Amino acid sequence: MDRSAADTSDVEAPSLGHVLRDGLAGLNAVRVARCLIAIAALLLILVTLDPFPDLRSEDAATVVGGRMALTYVSWGLLAAVAVLLVAVTDAPALKTLMTPLHLCLVGWLLINIVFSESRGVSIQRFVLAASVTSLAVLLPLLPPTQRSFNLCLGAAALALLALCYLGVVLAPQYSIHTALDVSEPQLAGDWRGSFGHKNVASPVMTILVYVGIYLSAAGSFVMGPAIAALAGIFLIFTGGKTSSVLCLAIYALAALVYVTRSLWLKRLICFVPLIVMNLLTVGSVLSPALGAMTRLLPLDPTFTGRSAIWEFALAAVAEKPVIGHGYAAFWDDVTARQTAQGSEWATSAAHSHNSYLDLAVTIGLPGLLLVILVFVLAPLGNFQSAQAHNGSRALAKLFLTVWLFGLYYGATETFLLERQNPIWFMFALAVAGLHFLARFQCTDQTEPQR
After folding, report:
1. Exposed (0-12), middle (13-18) or buried (19+): which is 4, by Cβ within 10 Å?
2. What is the mean pLDDT of residues 346-371?
């Protein structure tokens, strides 16, 4: 009931201390902890423990490697706390992850590690990948409401963008590629922000553009447009052509999928261009006919001579097509391997520049098939279910867009199952988000009841 001015004249106004104390008392410590873990995970993957590496120093890679112990501990602790927090209130959601297909993938990875050419390296990197992936999968469940999820996502995005722009303004030598870089001095002038390379900064900024658009649709009319605009501007200055083109193309593709009702038609829209893209790239070195077709195109689908790397990787697949060479254990020391005359430089590559081909090299063709079933085919079916039965369609569209971007970005770069790669983290988050949205409704109450 409303009170009049006379009624309130003799009531003592609460002091600032009382207001703060009452506000803090109203906070749920567990809910706050869940949000803090979510933000910490996002910042750890996006900012890392080694932001702004000095690429002018030959010891840059060594410095990062020296902090790997801290990286493992940080991810391991965050993952352990996240599992404990989620297990208490979201056990039904966790049980839905125990599918035969998911268990087969994990089982195959373990078998692959046992037969790895460098078992110690595979075990070590798998432990980190498991921690990172666990956090990505659990992150949609950590914030207690969709509103708090949006706030966590927006806060982490703004923090990263602020850091990147401050780096460009205050320390350009650490946030912009220079002609003094030990490797790839030809990238001078391209922005990289707090990341170690523009090819990491550009796809991250693309995903942040999608995040900003989603937050705008969700009602964040200040934070959403700010994130989208700042990320879009930064993306342009990174000089990342692939990410810039995919940014708009994938958003248009996602919009088309969103308005398409038939699941089979959705599959055609999503996967036919992806198959064509892989045929025109990796396929061009397998088939002379495809190679002749690619040479007629007005652009270079081999991305400046990557065909030599693809040939080298395909030869590695032929050596061990079933079991592979071992999870994350092939590209460390390939200089001694035989290559075709004139393509010896391919042995200096860090990866095959194609996520699907790289998985065939490391975990074999059965492993690649399982990854395709789990991370390529299943998410679209989950989106179809979420679109039909879940009220959070804007969130489902965000996850769909990030997932689609990952699928197409994977045709040009390697990131699938790649430990603390931020693109892998956001991709796995999107896949998990679609999985949960297909089975549960989002909670929007101020006091969530899970």
Report:
1. exposed
2. 86
